[in-house]
Amino acid sequence: MSAPELERLPEGLVAPVDDGACDHLPGWRLPALSLPATEGPPVDLSALPGLTVLYAYPRTGQPDQPLPTDWDLIPGARGCTPQSCAFRDHHAELQTAGTRVFGLSTQDTAYQAEAAGRLHLPFPLLSDAELRFAGALNLPTFEVDGMTLLRRVTLIIWDGVIQKVFYPIFPPDQNAAQVLAWLAESNPAPAVS
């Protein structure tokens, strides 16, 4: 698969359905776990002050490498590169809205670093290769070709607590715009009593 083919969504993809797998997440305090990052030291999302956007995705493809078996037939699997590119393209707006951005997948940091460099991502990708973060939050996953991959979900976090969950996400290239619209309409900081 060529790089341009990875950056666009093919016609006829099957949209994922809301199976309730993320209904438990709003209000959840993140676990204190450090995750390897493609730039800088490991990141403990629970310790970050203010607003954080974390988009979890199955895996980015690599140019000239085949996609996993029946990838386009798995609801919600295809579109990791377009989703990452959309967060890249909206990054300045997200920063203006006062938030930091991270991507999260189960690929190791070296695999993610290739994608981050090739796609010119201005934010780090975090590796949950051991599924510690996914397991602690009970994030939805699926299996393909012997890999355990995250289903696509985006979390809006304030001071380590999940305020908003986007799940399911389709089409993935619109997710960053959905996050920006929600931030513009909402006051994601919890009320102080």
UniProtKB/TrEMBL annotation:
Keyword annotations: Antioxidant, Disulfide bond, Oxidoreductase, Peroxidase, Redox-active center
Superkingdom of source: Bacteria
Biological process annotations from GO: cell redox homeostasis; cellular response to oxidative stress
Keyword Transferase: no
GO molecular function, a single term: thioredoxin peroxidase activity
A UniProt-annotated Pfam family: Redoxin
PROSITE patterns for this protein: THIOREDOXIN_2 (PS51352)
Record has Metal-binding as a keyword: no
CDD domains the UniProt entry points to: PRX_BCP (cd03017)
A GO cellular-component term linked to this record: cytoplasm
Boundaries of every Thioredoxin domain copy: 24-188
Protein name as it appears in the record: Alkyl hydroperoxide reductase subunit C-like protein
Species this chain originates from: Deinococcus marmoris
